[in-house]
Structure formats: structure tokens, C-alpha cells
């Protein structure tokens, strides 16, 4: 059974459109919150990313991992939209839909934008070849020498999910080499689109040393199959969404990845290929920013990161390992152990600012139980200078040394707390410290993965 009633609907009729955005490097618990909020909304909409996302929802102990399908799907009768800003791997999507159907989830509410770009098999090949090449040259290149002590470390692999995300977004911008979901379900133009795409792609992949033969006929046949299967779901979602809003229906936007992985505002170049912040909703769905009333910024009570790139508060010690084990910090998509560190409030405050967060959602507070002290980073030391500003790229961030404040820990298990007053005093102080620093109220505190393990303030 997937439609168990949560403790609250979180309904807030004053806003037609709300957004849930990750304020860190992803995996903040967006899926859990979107699932909870979905009950009070008519449609849930993804606007960015692709199958690099892994959003977990736990309903009465049963875990669902969603990658392309919006997390609202577990409530029957909801419209679930994959917006034009998403890059869709049609095979992964079908696999996900079949998996959900096997578990009794009704996925008939799913609609896919005809403008969304398709991730084709060669995008994954290209992603992997680029990563392997970067890894090789990164280890061969000479790092900064004694004559250039401030020189940035050589760029190594990004540590992508190898799901073809970067190459698919690059092709979208390149235009001629792209195939959109609307093309897949239009047999009369599919061959032409794929033919042009492969004409441009073959020399590139050969140069990267790919042994894969990209045969037009075979790919057209594969794409026709998935196109036929998905055709009933592929529509103009821009008019659909505007029609819903005009009827007074409530729409929830589900951010994927995280603000610090945003292609412009994140720790570039160690980022993903899309606009993850709330501003991505406009280009990623056709719904203008002015329609958005509420932006909920989801953040963990500590930090995690998957893949390469700087993370000033990273803990490569027993405390980090303890948090990893307690928080089950292993990637939902790739199974990689997540890098773990203390909460970085400089980063979170920056993310709240660029998203215009109207409320915070603090997750994983239960994971910190048993820590004698909890550290939070409130500033960076950059050489001689101390700053509260998040640097503009990875090279600058790599120089940041965290300045910590120490707060009292708590010993109690928080999993059964349902009201803010149920939390031990030091846990409440921790939440209030975060609110005070970021300047945004924590509207929800999550104390476990299950729907019920949620405190609304
Ligand atoms: P997302 O990508 O932001 O949706 O987050 P993920 O689903 O990838 O990772 C969050 C993980 O934490 C999942 O395994 C969730 O089930 C789990 N989770 C969410 N909220 C909480 C919480 O408050 N406490 C604990 N212990 N786990 C949580
Ligand atoms: P959710 O939605 C955590 C990271 C990858 C890598 C970088 C680029 O579950 O929070 P990509 O495959 O996108 O080109 O990889 O971004 N990354 C994520 N990390 N959660 C995610 O999504 C992520 N999506 C991408 O690990 O470092
Ligand atoms: Mg995730």
C-alpha cells in the first residue's frame, strides 16, 4: 500500500505553486518532503536533471527510489510531470515505470514534455569516456609546483553518475545533435533526427577512442520501440501546467540534484549540467517565476557530497564514518559512499539566498544523536582573510578552511519525536542556531526516513 495518510498534509492554500529545492550537494531528503507535500497538491513537476537524481521515499517501512518519475507518484490520482528541462533516458524511465507498476503503484498520471531532451545510449558512452580520459590526464598532469603555490589543483574527473547527463545537456545547446522526446514519438522525423545526431556524434566518439559502432538503423529501431511505448504520455506540458494553474490547481516543483551542483551557481566545474536552483523552474517548465509563492530549501543537519570537488567541512575520520553509517550515506543512484562532513552554514546561507528560500526543511537531525558535540562551520578562512561569502568556483573554495562553532550534542533517539517540543533542548537549540544564521525559519524538521517521522512547526 503506498497511499498511507501522513501525519499532516502541509497544505498551504495561499500559494498556487511551491518548490522543493536542495540547499547542499544533493541527497538532502527532497524526495521525502515532496512525497509529504504531494498530498496537498494536484501536480508534482520535475524541471531539471535526469536519472542522476535518486529520491527516496519511505512509506511505512517500504522504500521507493525514484530517478526520473516525480516523487508525488506514490499518491494515487496526482499528475506527475517531467518538464522540458529534464533530460530523459527513455529506457531508464520505462524500467522505473515497470518497477513501480510491479509494486502496485498507479503511474497513469505521468506526463512527459515533448520538449524534454532524450538521453541516448551514446550520451552515457561519452560521459564514461570523458570521465576515464580526465582521470588519466588528471593523474599524469603536474600539480602546482613550489614556484606556483596558489595554482589550482589539476582538473581530474568530475565523478559524474555516468548517466549521460552532461553530454545530453551539451547536445541540447549544440541543437543539431539533439533528439527530443517529441521526436521519439514522431516516426516520420525520428530517422532524420537520429541520422543528423549520429553524423555529428560518430567522429567525436571515435576521437575519444570509443569502440562502439553507432548504426543508424539499430538506434532508430530501439528509439521507435521506446517512443511507441511512451507516446501516450508525451505532451505539451507547458499548456498543461498553465491550464492547471488557471483552474486554481496546486502545483509542486521538485528540484533534483542540489544548489551547490548548479551549473552556474555551484562549485564549478564540479557540478551537474542543469540549473538546479528555483530559477530553473521557468526555463525548465515554462511556468514563470512570478507564479512561485513558496520555496522550501531542504538541508541535512550535516553535509554530504558524492563525486569530486571541494567540501571544506569534510570529515575523513571516525566521526565522518559514524555519520555515514548512521545516516546510511550511500548514493541512491550509484551506491557510492557519500563524503560526509559537519554542517556548512556558509554554503547553506548562500544557497538559501540564491533560491529565495521562504522556509527551511531540516532533515536527518536524528542521525546526529549520540554526538558529544556538534560542530557547524560559520565562516571560512581564506589565507589571511575571514569571510562569510561562498566562493564563486571550486578553485577558490578549495582554499577555504572552515571556522567552527561548537554546539551541545544530544543523546536521545529522536525517531519518535512528532512535535518540536518533544525534541531535547540541545536539538532545539541546534535548529534555532541554524535559523538564526541563515535568517530563514525551519518549517519542518525530519527525524527519520518515514513519512510519519516528521515535525511540522
Ligand atoms: P534526495 O535525493 O534529496 O531525495 O535524498 P535521497 O533520497 O537521495 O537521500 C536521503 C536519504 O535519507 C534517503 O535514504 C531517505 O530515506 C533518508 N532520509 C530522509 N530524511 C531523513 C531523516 O530525517 N532521517 C534519516 N535518518 N533519514 C532520512
Ligand atoms: P539528487 O537529486 C547527489 C553529482 C554527481 C557528480 C556531479 C555531476 O539525488 O539529490 P552528473 O552525473 O550529474 O553529471 O554528475 O553531480 N550529482 C549528485 N549528487 N545527488 C544527486 O541528485 C546528484 N546528481 C548529480 O555525484 O559529483
Ligand atoms: Mg538523492
What do you see in this structure?
With 457 residues, the chain is of the alpha/beta class. It has 2 domains: 17-115 and 236-456, Adenylosuccinate Synthetase, Chain A, domain 3; 117-232, Orthogonal Bundle (Adenylosuccinate Synthetase, subunit A, domain 2), CATH 1.10.300.10. It is built from 13 helices and 20 strands. The strands form 5 sheets. Strands 9-7-5-2-10-1-11-15-19-20 form a 10-stranded mixed beta sheet, with helices on both faces. A hairpin with a 7-residue loop joins strand 19 and strand 20. Helix 3 (121-140) packs across helix 4 (165-174) and helix 6 (187-207) packs across helix 7. The longest helix has 21 residues, at 187-207. The protein starts with 16 loop residues before the first strand and ends with a strand. Residues 1-9 have low confidence and may be disordered. Guanosine-5'-diphosphate binds at residues 22, 26-32, 54-56, 58, 327-328, 332, 363-364, 366-367, 446-449. Magnesium ion (MG) is lined by residues 26-27, 54-55, 332.
Amino acid at each position: 500500500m503506498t497511499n498511507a495518510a501522513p501525519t499532516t498534509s502541509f497544505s498551504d492554500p495561499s500559494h498556487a505553486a511551491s518548490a522543493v529545492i536542495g540547499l547542499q550537494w544533493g541527497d538532502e531528503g527532497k524526495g521525502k518532503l515532496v512525497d509529504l507535500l504531494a498530498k496537498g497538491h494536484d501536480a508534482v513537476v520535475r524541471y531539471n536533471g535526469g536519472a542522476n537524481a535518486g529520491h527516496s521515499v519511505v512509506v511505512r517501512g517500504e522504500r521507493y527510489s525514484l530517478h526520473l518519475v516525480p516523487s508525488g507518484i506514490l499518491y494515487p490520482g496526482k499528475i506527475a510531470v517531467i518538464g522540458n528541462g529534464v533530460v530523459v533516458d527513455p529506457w531508464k524511465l520505462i524500467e522505473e515505470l515497470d518497477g513501480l507498476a510491479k509494486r502496485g503503484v498507479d503511474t497513469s498520471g505521468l506526463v512527459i514534455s515533448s520538449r524534454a531532451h532524450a538521453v541516448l545510449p551514446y550520451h552515457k558512452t561519452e560521459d564514461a569516456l570523458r570521465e576515464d580520459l580526465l582521470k588519466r590526464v588528471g593523474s599524469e598532469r603536474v600539480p602546482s609546483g613550489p614556484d606556483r603555490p596558489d595554482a589550482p589543483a589539476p582538473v581530474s574527473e568530475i565523478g559524474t553518475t555516468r548517466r549521460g547527463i552532461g553530454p545530453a545537456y551539451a547536445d541540447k545547446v549544440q541543437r543539431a545533435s539533439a533528439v527530443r522526446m517529441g521526436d521519439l514519438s514522431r516516426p516520420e522525423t525520428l530517422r532524420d533526427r537520429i541520422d543528423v545526431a549520429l553524423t555529428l556524434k560518430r567522429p567525436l566518439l571515435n576521437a575519444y577512442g570509443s569502440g562502439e559502432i553507432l548504426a543508424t538503423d539499430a538506434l532508430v529501431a530501439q528509439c521507435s520501440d521506446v517512443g511507441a511505448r511512451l507516446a501516450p504520455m508525451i505532451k505539451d506540458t507547458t499548456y498543461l501546467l498553465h491550464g492547471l494553474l488557471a483552474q486554481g490547481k496546486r502545483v509542486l516543483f521538485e528540484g533534483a540534484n542540489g544548489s551547490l551542483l548548479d551549473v552556474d551557481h555551484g562549485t564549478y566545474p564540479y557540478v551537474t549540467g542543469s540549473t538546479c536552483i528555483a530559477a530553473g523552474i521557468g526555463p525548465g517548465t515554462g511556468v514563470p517565476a512570478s507564479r512561485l509563492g513558496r520555496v522550501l530549501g531542504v538541508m541535512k543537519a550535516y553535509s554530504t557530497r558524492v563525486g569530486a570537488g571541494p567540501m571544506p567541512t569534510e570529515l575523513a575520520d571516525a566521526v565522518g564514518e559514524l555519520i555515514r553509517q548512521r545516516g546510511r550515506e550511500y548514493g541512491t543512484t550509484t551506491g557510492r559512499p557519500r563524503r560526509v562532513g559537519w554542517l556548512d552554514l556558509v554554503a547553506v546561507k548562500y544557497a538559501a539566498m540564491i533560491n529565495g528560500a521562504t522556509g527551511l526543511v531540516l532533515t536527518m537531525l536524528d542521525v546526529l544523536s549520540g554526538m558529544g558535540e556538534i560542530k557547524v562551520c560559520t565562516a571560512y578562512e581564506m589565507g589571511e582573510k575571514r569571510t562569510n561569502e561562498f566562493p564563486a568556483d571550486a578553485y577558490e573554495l578549495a582554499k577555504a578552511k572552515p571556522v567552527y562553532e561548537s554546539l551541545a550534542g544530544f543523546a536521545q533517539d529522536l525517531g519518535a519525536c512528532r512535535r518540536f517540543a518533544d525534541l531535547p533542548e540541545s536539538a532545539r537549540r541546534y535548529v534555532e542556531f541554524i535559523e538564526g544564521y541563515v535568517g530563514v525559519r525551519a518549517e519542518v524538521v525530519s527525524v527519520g526516513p518515514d513519512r510519519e517521522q516528521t515535525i511540522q512547526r
